[in-house]
Amino acid sequence: MVQQCDYATLSQMFQRFQAANPEPQGELHHTNAFTLLVAVALSAQSTDVGVNRATHDMFQIADTPAKMLVLGEDALIDHIKTIGLYRNKARNVIRLCQILVDDYDGQVPSSRAALQSLPGVGRKTANVVLNMWWRLPAQAVDTHIFRIGNRTGICPGRDVNAVERAIEDHIPAEYQLHAHHWLILHGRYVCKARKPMCGTCIIRDLCPFEDKNL
46 burial class (0-12, 13-18, 19+ CB within 10 angstroms)? Predict the structure, then answer.
């Protein structure tokens, strides 16, 4: 496994990320905490573009748990059937809506434990909601972050939990709020899995990746 980058190197890397994109944004469309929660839950093993396409019309008529329950599982399936695992996801969304109505007065809870108790909501989904809606420095580790964390030494780890801990332990505090967005976007558009675009990478001179592309 690649060695963890030191503090000085990480500081330089994230200074550059911040300079290039001071306020990175997630790419899932949403209007409130509930639509964000649903969109993130639907995005598992699906692209953000595909989820946005599927939820565009749906969120105009079902942007609260109560409205989603009125919409119902069959109509929900019709809206999201273009994304992966849509039947199971629809079932989970309806179940979590009922729990939100029954136990949380129709509001999305703001603790990781409460979020993870909802059907179809894992730690990554909970962290995205905590970060994007409540602006907590929660780190949602996806495949992009896991890959570049180990490729670049920014946050190496043998599993997603270890990578999450590496971000929290090593990246300077002033960059924690946006860290996972900078890393996701960098992994999605620059440090790609098969053909990383090293020639245009803003941290190329700081990255220890040996198989760099020109």
Answer: middle
**Known catalytic residue: 142?**
yes
Looking at residue 14, what is its pLDDT? 98
Task: Give pLDDT tens digits for 31-82.
Answer: 999 999 999 999 988 999 999 999 999 999 999 999 999 999 999 999 999 9
**What's the pLDDT score for residue 45?**
87
Instruction: From the candidates 6, 63, 105, 142, give the one annotated as an active-site residue.
Output: 142
Given the residues 124, 159, 195, 211, the one annotated as active site: 124
Active site residue 159: no
Distance CA 158, CA 58 (A): 38
CA–CA separation, 94 and 49 (whole Å): 22
Say how far apart CA 173 and CA 89 lie, in whole Å. Answer: 35
How many other C-beta atoms are found inside a 10 Å radius of the C-beta of residue 44? 18
- Provide the whole-model pTM: 0.91
Long-range contacts of 111-118 (CB under 8 A, 24+ apart): 112/138, 115/37, 118/37
